[in-house]
Each structure stands twice: as structure tokens, then as C-alpha cells.
UniProtKB/TrEMBL annotation:
<dbReference type="InterPro" id="IPR024567">
    <property type="entry name" value="RNase_HII/HIII_dom"/>
</dbReference>
<dbReference type="InterPro" id="IPR001352">
    <property type="entry name" value="RNase_HII/HIII"/>
</dbReference>
<keyword id="KW-0378">Hydrolase</keyword>
<dbReference type="GO" id="GO:0005737">
    <property type="term" value="C:cytoplasm"/>
</dbReference>
<protein>
    <recommendedName>
        <fullName>Ribonuclease HII</fullName>
        <ecNumber>3.1.26.4</ecNumber>
    </recommendedName>
</protein>
<dbReference type="Pfam" id="PF01351">
    <property type="entry name" value="RNase_HII"/>
</dbReference>
<comment type="similarity">
    <text>Belongs to the RNase HII family.</text>
</comment>
<dbReference type="GO" id="GO:0030145">
    <property type="term" value="F:manganese ion binding"/>
</dbReference>
<keyword id="KW-0540">Nuclease</keyword>
<feature type="binding site">
    <location>
        <position position="16"/>
    </location>
    <ligand>
        <name>a divalent metal cation</name>
    </ligand>
</feature>
<dbReference type="GO" id="GO:0004523">
    <property type="term" value="F:RNA-DNA hybrid ribonuclease activity"/>
</dbReference>
<dbReference type="GO" id="GO:0043137">
    <property type="term" value="P:DNA replication, removal of RNA primer"/>
</dbReference>
<feature type="domain" description="RNase H type-2">
    <location>
        <begin position="10"/>
        <end position="199"/>
    </location>
</feature>
<keyword id="KW-0464">Manganese</keyword>
<dbReference type="InterPro" id="IPR022898">
    <property type="entry name" value="RNase_HII"/>
</dbReference>
<dbReference type="GO" id="GO:0006298">
    <property type="term" value="P:mismatch repair"/>
</dbReference>
<dbReference type="GO" id="GO:0003723">
    <property type="term" value="F:RNA binding"/>
</dbReference>
Amino acid sequence: MLLKNHSNYLLECGTDEAGRGCLAGPVTAAAVLLPKDFKNVLLNDSKQISEKKRNILKPIIESVSLSFGVAHIFQEEIDSINILNASILAMHKAIDALHTTPEFIIVDGNRFKPYNGIPFETIVKGDSKYMSIAAASILAKTYRDIYMDTIHEEYPMYNWKKNKGYPTKEHREAIQKYGITEYHRKSFKLLPDQLTFNF
């Protein structure tokens, strides 16, 4: 059973990211402010529910939320500032995109940087504990999946439509066979034995 609020503040925003462990594509974050009376039996951590349910939930969350924001941080910046900093930056940018300023922020995970002096709490496995973080995890995942489906059309041999850039056996074999694209994160260990690439 997901909890509604962590704090006593009325405007509590949840934030989460998707794509942190991927070899290609952006890390994507979302921030969501839900109304106090929000209820949905399908809502859970995006990793716990099917793609079909995530796609049902996406427009519901967008229509009922007081405000939501989504932000991508792309592979060049990930390579430049590292994935942890990129994940936090994506969450900050998602909060930037909210039309309503939150009074309190709850963050999935255990790392965050202060945002505009707003009090916050990091919560390990927060996406399976709090509604607003679960909602943010759904939006982050679905928006990132849409982006990966789009770039799949450009490079179908990596099958990003299916693996979304994660390090599957098939994805690694395609990297070994075809090399890397501009969408790959060059700072990541792209192959287990890290073969040399010709950039």
C-alpha cells in the first residue's frame, strides 16, 4: 500500500529517474505533485508493473496531477559530469518544469543535492513506498521509453525498442559487431572486456 505523504506539507513533490544503468540514451527524471485525494489501484513503482499498465497510468497522472515535469539529460552531459550528477541534475530540471513550487521534495534513492532551499528527504525504494515518487517513476520511464523507441528507428540493429539501452546480451553483441553510436555513453563500460573502440 503506497503512502500519500511523507511530510506535513500540502505541496509535497515526488521525484525519480529512469535509465541510470543504461549504455545508451539519456537519464530521464520526472517530478510530480499529486492532489491530496489521489487514488489509483494500478499505481506502483514502474519496475513492478507492466508496460501496458505504465502506458495506462501516464495520461492519468498527467491529467490529475497538480503539476508535473520531465527532463532528459543526454549522453554527452552524462559523460561529462558522471551518471550520479546527471541523475540529480535531471531531477532538478524536472522540478524546474513544475508550474507550482513544491514546499517539500521526496526523492527516490539516497543521493540528492539541495534545490532552491526547499527541504527534502531521500527515501531508499521510495518508488514502492510513496504515491508521488511512484507517479514520477512512471513518467520518467514512459517518457524515456518513447525517446528510445524514436532513436531505435535510426539504429534498429541495437534493438533499443526492446532493451531501451540497457546492457542486455543482445545490446552488447550489437556494440561488438557494429561499434557505438552518438547515443552511447562513452564513459560507461560498454563491453565486459572493454574492447577498444575507434572513435
